[in-house]
Amino acid sequence: MRYLREEGVHAAEAVLTKDGRECVAADTPWGKYYAVAFKGVEGKRMDQMGYSDELFFGMGKTLGAIHRRSAKYTAKRERRPDWKDRLEWVISVLTECSAPEKSFREAELLMGVFGSLPVSPDIYGLIHYDFELDNVFYDARSEAYSVIDFDDAVYHWFVMDIEQSLDSIRSELPEERKEQAPRCFLSGYRSEKHVDGAMLGMMPACRRYADLYGYARILRSVHESWKHEPEWMRDLRGHLHQHMKKRAMLFGEEIRV
Hints:
Blueprint: H1 2-6, E1 10-11, E2 24-28, E3 31-35, E4 44-45, H2 53-70, H3 83-96, H4 101-115, E5 124-127, E6 136-139, E7 144-147, E8 154-157, H5 158-172, H6 180-190, H7 197-200, H8 203-223, H9 231-247
Parallel strand pairs: 1-7
Antiparallel strand pairs: 2-3, 4-6, 5-8, 6-7
């Protein structure tokens, strides 16, 4: 995030502790925890604004700018996980929670698909992973887009970010705008960084990756249960199970690329 700000991107900025640290670590009986406080960013969240072609163009342009700079980025200390690390974590969760066999098959398919892709700085690097409407702010006064919530940053193909963003946009828009808005977003992205049709053709595989990762995160959250759970918790558990069911609809089926 500091690197992006130095490169002119409006990214979240940490509030320093009194002794100058950006992050505080604490060992607890439940494991090691990290705490960071961030300064507020200017503007309004994109999901709270009236959408326009210009806003989606600017959102895409911002992601393109991030990826263009990410292509040159080298971690100075600890490196973030990559796509394979995440899939291995998914498999460990599936194993621990005795998940259905088709979810393991899905992980195997994705390992094969992404393991066969070329890797170069032009198409692969450290991505945001959660570049969605609720994590992008627009300030009309300065016409600046600010980005927050880099918690899920991972080394992946840049098209993964594009797919996540377009999925977020489509989920918020009425049917009549679901074609135009993505076109504006991609036009904005291409004004900063090239992306070819072959990479965009990977978006279905990226959606399957996101669905499996989301499935594993939910599964891990709902796996543990208690006696006499309150009604709100039972309702929440049921809601989350529906999300898992939706994400698992294509598990194990052929991935076309």
